[in-house]
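hey
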């Protein structure tokens, strides 16, 4: 058994033994403990500050807020939302906010190859994690996509939204308020 196979098997066992939420996390809830796979691409690893690791937790990110976008690699609504989130990502990564919000996507059902292809389109500027067997998606209560979650490193959910976020400026202002 190779080292990669052992790590993947341990990760699978850990995720399978995690409690599954009955419904997706909503504002006021606490996120289930997530053991997340490190992005396969070095740029994504660097953005999240998880180089040299194989897995990470929300608390490992060292940010004041964590922005998680649950997507489907073939989801047309996710494609519709991506330009606004590219703008949001750029706004959150400059000035006083730079480094305070860790932002990543979770590709429910997405393999590394599918995520690599998706990132190659330039549709997402932030890292996207593969979840090929829907393990993390199940732990999160199997939300429809796109599903946006903003939480603190301790897992307390401060924002959630199902579907396309229509007002990116309002979301940006809300995040700024949460950081004050």
């Amino acid at each position: 058994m190779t080292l990669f196979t052992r790590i993947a098997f341990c990760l699978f066992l850990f995720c399978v033994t995690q409690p599954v939420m009955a419904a997706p996390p909503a504002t006021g809830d606490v996120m289930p403990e997530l053991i997340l796979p490190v992005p396969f691409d070095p740029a994504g690893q660097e953005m999240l500050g998880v180089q040299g690791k194989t897995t990470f937790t929300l608390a490992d990110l060292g940010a004041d807020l964590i922005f998680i976008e649950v997507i489907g690699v073939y989801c047309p609504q996710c494609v519709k939302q991506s330009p606004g989130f590219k703008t949001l990502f750029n706004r959150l990564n400059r000035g006083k906010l730079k480094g305070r919000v860790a932002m990543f996507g979770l590709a429910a059902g997405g393999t590394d190859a599918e995520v690599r292809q998706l990132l190659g389109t330039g549709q997402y500027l932030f890292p996207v994690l593969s979840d090929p067997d829907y393990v993390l998606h199940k732990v999160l209560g199997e939300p429809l996509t796109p599903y946006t979650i903003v939480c603190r490193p301790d897992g307390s959910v401060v924002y959630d939204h199902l579907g396309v976020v229509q007002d990116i400026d309002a979301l940006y202002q809300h995040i700024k308020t949460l950081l004050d």
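The helical segments are 3-17, 42-48, 76-92, 112-120, 135-139, 168-179. Residues 41-179 form a domain with the Glutaredoxin fold (CATH 3.40.30.10).
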